[in-house]
Design a protein that fits this description.
The protein is an alpha+beta fold. The protein has 6 helices and 10 strands; from the N terminus they run ββββββαααααββββα. A 4-stranded antiparallel sheet has the order 7-8-9-10, with helices on one face. The longest helix has 19 residues, at 52-70. The N and C termini lie far apart (97 Å). 13% of the residues are buried. The model is unreliable at 73-91 (pLDDT under 50).
Length: 218
């Protein structure tokens, strides 16, 4: 049999953590008592023939469990022992694998900063927090130094005009008042001359070619 603030174990009837117990009550008998245990699962257990001392231990264990549960607070990411913050500093270090972890609760970081101030810790003697890291150590180091987490700046996106998005099929150069040179930008050996006088013509030999159209559209 084991009864404390964490476990209720009375073989062969029950062995479970208190967090699985919904409520307790006792039904008196002649010289002993029957303990009724209602579990969170909905199951109801009857443990007969318990003496007064055992019943008292059961209720004391359940009471301590409820008190601990009511006083539960978030655990520190480190323990401050006899060496104080010096121990914390040596035990903790920047961890790149935790760089994207969520922010610690503000009250926890505030408590760390308060303890550090009370112990007279000099922030300058501690390793600096990495600017874009959110691991446990870097969060605490920033809280102690009064700085905030720096996020990566957004990437600059270069705007491109509609004209720049158009594919340039021909390079056009004016040689005279009505004479133009049309060249393929991908093949400089392919070039023609277009005349917009009377009659309109192109050195390619076609009077309705794409070279003439390119000059007219330029």
């Amino acid at each position: 049999m084991k009864i404390n603030s964490k476990v209720l174990s009375i073989p062969p009837y029950i062995s479970t953590a208190w967090e699985n117990v919904a409520s307790l009550h006792v039904e008196p008998a002649n010289n002993a008592h029957t303990l009724i245990v209602d579990l969170i699962s909905g199951q109801r257990l009857e443990i007969p023939q318990l003496d007064h001392k055992t019943i008292q231990l059961v209720f004391e264990g359940h009471e301590k469990f409820l008190e601990q549960k009511g006083n539960a607070t978030p655990q520190m990411p480190f323990q401050i022992g006899g060496e104080g913050m010096a121990e914390m500093s040596s035990a903790m270090q920047h961890n790149p694998e935790q760089s994207d972890m969520p922010d610690l609760p503000p009250e926890m970081l505030e408590k760390v900063s308060t303890v550090a101030s009370a112990l007279g810790v000099d922030q300058d003697n501690l390793p600096k927090a990495e600017p874009h890291c959110n691991c446990v150590y870097c969060q605490i180091a920033r809280a102690m130094g009064g700085t905030v987490h720096e996020t990566e700046p957004p990437e600059l996106i270069e705007e491109v005009s509609d004209d720049e998005l158009k594919f340039r099929e021909w390079d056009i150069k004016q040689l005279d008042a009505k004479l133009y040179e049309v060249a393929n930008p991908l093949d400089k050996t392919e070039h023609y001359q277009v005349f917009l006088g009377n009659p309109i013509g192109c050195t390619c030999g076609n009077n309705n070619c794409e070279h003439i159209k390119a000059v007219l559209n330029s």
